[in-house]
Specification:
The complex is a heterodimer of chains A (330) and B (94). Chain A contains 13 helices and 2 strands; from the N terminus they run ααααααααααββααα. By secondary structure, chain A is mainly α. Chain A starts with 14 loop residues before the first helix and ends in an 8-residue tail after the last helix. Chain B has a 3-stranded antiparallel sheet with strand order 2-1-3, with helices on one face. The longest helix of chain B is centred in the middle third of the chain and has 12 residues. The chains are: A mainly alpha (330), B alpha+beta (94). At the A-B interface, helix 4, helix 7 and helix 13 of A face strand 2 and helix 1 of B.
Amino acid sequence: MYAQMIKSEATQEDTEKLAAFQARIDAGQKIEPKDWMPEGYRKTLIRQIGQHAHSEIVGQLPEGNWITRAPSLERKANLLAKVQDEAGHGLYLYCAAETLGVSRDELTEMLLDGRMKYSSIFNYPTLTWADMGAVGWLVDGAAIMNQVPLQRTSYGPYARAMVRICKEESFHQRQGYHLLMHMMKGTKEQRRMCQDAMNRMWYPALMMFGPSDKDSVHSEQSMRWKIKMNTNDELRQKFVDETVPQAKYLGLEIPDENLRWNDERGHYDFSEPDWSEFFDVIKGNGPCNVDRIAARQKAWDDGAWVREAMLAHADKKAARRAAGELKNVA
Amino acid sequence: MSREWPLWEVFIRGQHGMSHRHVGSLHAPDSERAIKNARDVYTRRNEGVSIWVVEAKHIAASSPSEKGPMFEPSRDKVYRHPTFYDIPDEVGKM
């Protein structure tokens, strides 16, 4: 889940309009950009879609880290395709956010100056090649868990972006799992690397779903508006239930001594992640927060002359076309 | 300097014989670059055989508040559908 702790905005508007709006959502209708919407709905969505977009973009960094060091050409092509997908997913989402009246540059600036967040998971380092497997399997797995229900979210452009993303995302999880399956058939040292990746990624992956429902103050309004479809705890439980047999097949141990099947609940019991660590990472104190934003800032600054030059070139061409020196483009 | 690249709407023909469909939007400095960006953003998995791009500011749209007057007049004209006309079975397929 790439959107954590999204604050819902209070809304003070015409009660009649609000009731009609809620009725449309309850009836399963999609809200489109030009439709009337409560200011709180609009602001909450900008924050949520923006955070989701930023996560896709920042999420390229921990994996991009390994592209040049992939152990084979095939794995390199797989990883490259996955990272390129993340860029595409970021772009779909930025466009969805822009339909709510915020510009792309504003979104980027809010990420860079810390007004907007991205998922806590990308503030952890990727130390070995096995991490590429664990990220695909666990991190993308957790993201999919959240994104599948969001295909039914009430805001049309967001729902449509989610449909495209879900269609593409399942390869991400499978290539990660495939990589681990392969490594687990390798040497003892390779298996140890896989287990180490699992040990480091497990709790950060659980944190992706956000704090426990009892501490999640903004969920209720967002769920009424159908911009959040399930509670954090529901999704986390679903993720654990699906992941346990997958880990077992790989021969990896989940680093939780309290993990056991609960017959009565029909679910696995498991330990909560360390929430103080989560809040600390969100605040900016994770192992890689500074590096991640520095990398985005550098890309933004280094790309400035390219953005300007391409606009200048487009302006020049448009002027020449207007003067009849160039033919109209087909 | 902070002029943003303009926004383009992207339409893709999925297969020969089908019409172009709106798939999303993107930013680009000009139409040529918009087509190249659309290729990278929207056809990474062989989704298209042709791309159209239109600068978003050139698209005029009907207003949601006029949905009633715009579309309701056609709702009660059921005689525009073939099922409105009962034709006896013995006439055969029509």
